[in-house]
Fold each of these.
Amino acid sequence: MKKYNETSINNEILKIITEKHGYAWQLDFSELAVKMLFEGTAKFLGEMKDKETPVAAVLMDPAGNFKFAGIVSFIPNEEDETKGSWNLAFTFNEEDVTSDMKKYGYNDPVLHSILADTGLTRYDLSFNSYEGQEFILPVMCAVADSIKEYMRASVNTDPKMELDGFFTAEAQLDGDKIYVAITPSEILKQHVKDDKLLKQQHN
């Protein structure tokens, strides 16, 4: 399994952001933006989670094309449905976001604020608004596209990749389609866990 820093993803993010969008960008910003996307999404889902309804943070580009989503849902205990655990998932597959979910776009003010704060306070990435132009969403789309396309291209050669402390990704062939599965790290899962609920379960 490849480590993230052994891949070409950082270069691909740089290429999209500088060539497609014309933003000033440095190569070492790329991995920080990846961490910002995953950690910021997990933090938001931890704030918005709902026992009754799965919650999805859905990243779309300006044209309305699906790019990425984070989902948090409550898994009841079989013996006592008032108890259970929170499940955090990430996906590049739009079909994983179902009609029963409560959906938030990445332009949602709370999600946007948490992303920006995570980028600034955790990774020293500042996205200053310039003449009303939106920078965060195009960068997050570039991050999602770069990871997905790298994994799809590697399905027959090196289908697994890990970013320590954040996620493991695996490309899988399903007939003539390629599916990219993402498993969040235990560290990221902490953002959606309910400490009060955990205490109740251990009492």
Amino acid sequence: MHFIYGVPVLFVFVTLFSDFMPRIFGAYADQRVLLIVSLIALIALGFLRLKDRRTATSILADLWPFIPLVFSFFLSALQHLLDPFYLVEPGFYALYFAAFGVVGYLIRAEGRTHEAAQTLSVVAGVGCFFYAAITIMVYLFAITDDFSRLNQIIPWGFVNIRYWSHIATWVVPLLPLTLLIVPWKDHRLWRLAVEFTAAIWWWILVLSSSRGSMVGLLSGFTVVWLCFGRSALPWVKLSAKFAGYGVIVWMLLSVVIPSLVFDNIYIPGIKGDASGRLALWEEAWMMSVQQFPFGMGPQSWLTHDILTETYQASPKFGHPHNMYLMWAAEYGWVSVAGLIVLCGVAWKRFWPSISAARAGLGTKVMPMVAFTASVTAAMVHAGVSAVFIAPGSMLVGLLVLAVFWALIRPESLAHAVIERSRLSIAGGYVFVLLFVLAGVFWFFEVLRYRQAMADDLVYYQEELSLGNLPRFWLHGNYPRD
């Protein structure tokens, strides 16, 4: 199954090492295009594999929680048919949530959940190891070149420092898993590599003052501790140990060595304020109630007449730094309600696993613990940042969410759906063909949007000089009023 092996390698390495990849439109845009093509391909291939193995009823029983959320995005698009590029972002979010549901269902239906969890944790760990090793090289070059502002060059490889922190939120909880479930977990060299990787990534978290990641990771840590209790102890102990290693490395690389090399050192502090987000959240809230409960339309954050004085006087961004308020503002509270339905069903399916783990009945608890922590951290982080906008974050998140959806599915349900399809093979092919044709039409609309943005870029840079406001594309302040 390509998702278990090939796709994680592609997504993780394209996200972490975009500086070394050939570029077509630029790293940000290329990651977006890869994500878009992957969504169409994964959904189509997923249904092709299932069409003659599962009934439509059994597939619907697993995927129905996604329908309200997916429908809410398309509903917003249908209400704004005259808006420019009205179909681009609604289609994107609809396909994104549908894709991780379909792939997660397929992983579980084929009985490869543990294999998928193990593979993704190993791929993430290996990718993070090479990123950490190159980071040490960057650090040494900075020290030898007498450059003390380390936070300006580390983390490297991302157009915005916060896009790295999104990746950290997804993958840091998976690192302990590489010492808990892989067959070679007791090999000394492997353990040293994982501990080195975790220490460097935690050091970068502290160095970059990634508050959203830290709050998210702490939330994930707390949730799994409360839910799984003593069953989560192996993962909890390793996570705490890795964080401790990171603090030690931060003291060594950010304080001790720079103090010996430079006359003056710069140690960025972790801010205690909201960094101007409150004005953005107030604006998004006011937008969400203007056309309650359907929102002001796709990308209306970029095009609407400003509603609050605080946002009028504050710096402008391509999004309100809160995914839930952004969806409420643009797609309405119906989209948030759809997300709540999805989360509620996930919790209902998740609870039996918690009960079994706390009773000591779970045989493979650690993947559930790690992926629960990762998803929790990302969902919390999304409340203060663009976790579901940055394409790199969404590439890695698609992997984690799909495996998590597979993990929480009850065993009894998985066995119950193994039966012959009542749909004809021809009917299945017709459905997939129609979906692919619609996907190709939407993809060309996405490319038309990119070209319009590129045509506008010269005017935007020379006449307005407002700087890039990343959204769907890196030049995200387009279209605008």
